[in-house]
Design brief:
With 677 residues, the protein is of the alpha/beta class. The chain folds into three domains: 173 residues, Rossmann fold, CATH 3.40.50.300; 89 residues, Helix Hairpins, CATH 1.10.287.1770; 371 residues, no CATH class. It is 63% helix and 8% strand. It contains 31 helices and eleven strands. The strands form three sheets. A seven-stranded mixed sheet has the order 2-3-4-1-5-6-8, with helices on both faces. A two-stranded antiparallel ribbon has the order 7-9. Helix 22 packs parallel to helix 23. The radius of gyration is 29 Å and the shape is elongated.
């Protein structure tokens, strides 16, 4: 028999760390049915029993305003898992218990995992676990997941909880099994529950939960109950209750919120003690780092140091990879007698993928630095600091999170907009996200910056990231005024405690991001560079031969040359030849393909930097980088835009980005030649 266990908690409580500790490598990832929200499911074996561990999206509540909340809510009330493990942050119990109370309302079989106990102790926060268990009526397991303390206790508690439920052999979901009550609402809840219990179709739900949700005016529950047999009896009672509560609280749902927080305040006073009244390290650092002026200015040197570290640390590793692929290419050409196959492998796969993987160390060290800042707690401050600026450009505060994620990859960043409740705010955030420089563009920047701006490599690349942010903000402001004429929502974001990053967590996050890049290198990029190779060695006259990459006159008769030459007049003001234009076309597959395409089209392979230095001027190179930053999203990004907000907005994104990319590249070329000749 396999038991199903759900993990749920607020964002940043260490849920992923606990999920990984429970499941190890036995994990598969997909999407929840009907939505693009990631679904992580793992397997755990303990004490001779098998468990299916479902990692629910991180949510602050089950109000179901966002897609994440809808996914979590629907799973909990419809799938009825054997146990729900609610992970809470011991340093922020006030905020975390709000979700706990909602889980109790649903009637879930609950276990509370109190994480970050080590951090709480360091902050002088003491939590009386036994008293918390007595008040809530559920098992509470203290642990420090990042230090692997208490994980075995959690596993034992999970086993004990499912065994106890199996022995009772009853559907506890229908019963009011928790002692937590809302004094000023209990009369109303009982009146509604007594009517709800009469409907057989609703008996699989906790009537107390349905009653509370009706008072809160939850749309999903309203529709469900309206279609039931008891609605005629229930409606007049519900209307009377809402009128009574409106007189006292203004809105009935505010009554429920207020009652929950009263209970939470009382619990926290009883179980949490602060033994230190001194300023914490986090408070002292935040006085400076989150200051409106100083904090904003400090972001620039922080990011500059990040890029400086990335390129200085990665340089020797990139040179080693470059040497390995150059040797491999030579070996293949000399050892394989079939010239067609040798050219396909050496000039196509090895040359293209090798050129991209030369930048693999750069990405690895960049992801390491970002993961380091994330685990330290500083990365969460950047959205908070920039929120004041964001609102001035018409963007909702919650858009900052997807924007920050966009520096890694636009695909998950666009998916992250599902936490934005307002549809117009969400569409606007999605439309400007592809302007933020994802990691796929980094190999292009690294190539051109290293070839033509070697002394100022870090500054030039940082300027590309800055250009993307500036264009995203200006575009958002324009769209807000011309298309979306509503005010953006405010940001609510959690600021975790600062702490020394855990190396194992940083390395795991780095590996997951690097692995995504490697998967692309092995699939999309290989497909892209092989496609370029075929279009390069074939033309209207047929197969041109393997000498095509060493003979400029020969490759000029290929299909890829025809495509590039058709575009050359359009890009003549920028000073790009047909090879550069052709590479841009293949960059639509994935931005990394641009580097591999250039390597093959110039017949350069691993010596691409030297060739680029002669084929481009600093001005034309900078314009090319800017164009690559802005123009068409990659196929994967375009697909997720279509899935999230529809074809109309996806095509709109394509159109405006192409126009914007051309205008910006043209301005760089014109102004650059005017200033520098």
């Amino acid at each position: 028999m396999e038991y199903e266990i759900a993990l749920i908690g607020n964002p940043n409580v260490g849920k992923s760390t606990i999920f990984n500790a429970l499941t190890g490598e036995n994990v598969y990832i997909g999407n929840w049915a009907g939505v693009t929200v990631e679904k992580k499911v793992g397997e755990m074996e303990y004490d001779g029993k098998k468990f299916k561990i479902v990692d629910l999206p991180g949510v602050y509540s089950l109000t179901a305003n966002s897609i994440d909340e809808i996914v979590a809510r629907d799973y909990l009330i419809n799938e009825n898992p054997d146990l729900v493990v609610n992970i809470a942050d011991a340093t922020a119990l006030e905020r975390n218990l709000y979700l706990t109370l909602q889980l109790m309302e649903i009637g879930a079989d609950l276990l509370l995992a109190l994480n970050k106990m080590d951090l709480a102790n360091n902050l002088g926060i003491s939590v009386d676990v036994k008293k918390l268990e007595d008040i809530l009526g559920i098992k509470v397991v203290p642990l420090s997941a990042s230090k692997k303390i208490g994980i075995d206790d959690l596993k034992k508690a999970i086993v004990e909880a499912v065994e106890e439920k199996r022995k009772k052999g009853e559907n506890l979901k229908r019963k009011d099994k928790y002692s937590i009550k809302y004094p000023h609402l209990e009369t109303y809840i009982k009146r509604l529950s007594s009517i709800i219990e009469k409907d057989e179709a609703l008996k699989k739900y906790n009537p107390r939960y349905l009653a509370i949700k009706l008072i809160e005016n939850d749309e999903y529950i309203n529709e469900m109950v309206k279609n039931s047999k008891i609605w005629k009896d229930l409606e007049p009672v519900l209307n009377d209750i809402k009128k009574e509560l409106s007189k006292k609280y203004g809105e009935p749902e505010l009554a429920v919120v207020e009652e929950r927080y009263k209970i939470i305040d009382r619990i926290v006073k009883d179980v949490v003690k602060k033994t230190s009244g001194k300023l914490t390290t986090t408070e002292m650092l935040d006085d400076v780092l989150t200051d409106e002026k100083i904090g904003t200015l400090l972001i620039i040197p922080f990011l500059w140091m990040l890029f400086k570290f990335t390129f200085d640390a990665s340089k020797p590793f990139s040179e080693i990879i470059q040497y390995i692929f150059a040797s491999l290419s030579t070996f293949i050409k000399t050892s394989i007698s079939n010239k067609f196959l040798a050219s396909l492998l050496a000039d196509g796969v090895i040359s293209g993928v090798g050129a991209v993987l030369t930048f693999f160390p750069i990405l690895a060290f960049l992801f390491f630095a970002i993961s380091f800042l994330e685990d330290s707690g500083y990365m969460a401050r950047i959205p908070f600091i920039m929120d004041r600026v964001m609102n001035k450009f018409g963007l909702p505060g919650k858009a900052v999170i997807p924007m920050v994620m966009g520096f890694g990859c636009n695909v998950p960043a666009i998916m992250a907009t599902r936490t934005i409740e307002n549809r117009e705010d969400r569409i606007l955030t999605i439309l400007i996200n592809p302007l933020l420089s994802c990691s796929a563009r980094l190999p292009i920047y690294a190539l051109f910056a290293g070839a033509l701006f070697s002394k100022y490599q870090g500054v030039v690349i940082l300027s590309m990231y800055a250009l993307g942010v500036i264009l995203a903000l200006l575009t958002a402001l324009m769209f807000r005024r011309l298309i979306f004429k509503t005010s953006p929502a405010y940001l609510i974001v959690e600021l975790p405690q600062y702490h020394i990053p855990h190396l194992n967590v940083v390395l795991k996050n780095t590996w997951e991001r690097v692995y995504d890049f490697l998967k692309k290198a092995g699939t999309v990029i290989v497909f892209g560079v092989v496609l370029v190779w075929f279009l390069s060695v074939y033309g209207p006259s047929g197969y041109l031969g393997d000498e095509v990459f060493n003979n400029p006159n020969l490759i000029a008769h290929s299909y890829v040359a025809i495509i590039g030459k058709m575009l050359t007049p359009l890009f003549a003001p920028m000073g790009w030849d047909w090879r550069a234009c052709s590479a841009l076309v293949f960059g639509i597959i994935a931005k990394e393909v641009v580097v591999g395409s250039l390597a093959m089209l110039y017949g350069a392979g691993e010596n691409l930097s030297n060739v680029i230095a002669h084929a481009f001027s600093p001005i034309s190179a900078y314009a090319f980088m800017a164009f690559c930053l802005i123009y068409l999203p990659c196929i994967a990004t375009l697909a997720v835009i279509k899935n999230e907000i529809g074809w109309k907005w996806a095509l709109f994104a394509v159109a405006y980005e192409m126009i914007l990319a051309y205008v910006v590249a043209l301005l760089i070329s014109v102004i650059g030649h005017f200033l520098f000749g």
